[in-house]
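User: quick one, fold this
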Amino acid sequence: MSTPKIKTLIVDDEPLARELLASLVRKDSALELVGESPDGADALAKITTLKPDLILLDVQMPVMNGIGLASRLIHRRDVPYIIFVTAYDRYAVKAFELNALDYILKPIAKDRFFPAVEKAKQAISQQRIYEMAEKMLGLVSSLSDTGSHGRQEAIVINTGGKLVSLEPEDIIWIEAANQYVRIHTNRQIFMMAENLGKFADRLDGAFFQRVHRSAIINLAKVRSVARKGSGAHRIGLAGGQEVILTRSKAQLLPLLLKYARSNTGSAQSTSNREKSDG
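Assistant:
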């Protein structure tokens, strides 16, 4: 069976830049150019229908810039991999905070473009291997009738060049580390090349919640919730680890308090602590 091509979308407001990128994409037989957009708003509409695997994204554009588009995509299911292609280096830190795979400065040099694309090809190839392995695990589970209801199935990761099956109850939390995710478990920490948004797609929302742009927690591992200030809260997890619940995720607070009480049998609510502190 032939390997599916990597569907690629170019997003840049400069026609000449789009033309150059398109010519580079066509030089790689593993890539398929599925569309072009002059701004983030147009790209957002096309992403829904074209479902690209990879986006070559400019930063400075009218209507919606590249950072704005990436911020919209990061919380979606099936988020594409992103390589920023821009004349401005000052956005690099923000780009990697949004889990960009790479950041290429204009004028575009072939010796920067193709290694970045190679990185994307490897990440997408790994993603497809994970998805296939998980499908096989699910098939084996259903055929043997050993799958249990009400629990997250095993999660397959590629770390150190080998596939590892993780039991969800062993995972404490997952954090974004640029184009990698760092998976904290009861025994050790695993690193793998994957976007946090894509990893989130493989987790059941009944057991895992994204509490921060760069963090997902296992609800069964919540031990305490305490006010931090400025609308944020500090979540204490099993093993003494802590993760921040951002103000934008405040709607999760009642759920987290519920799990903290359930998991420990003695957790105080944030409001009670605040009264006693006062």
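User: anything notable?
Assistant: The chain has two domains: 6-126, 149-277.
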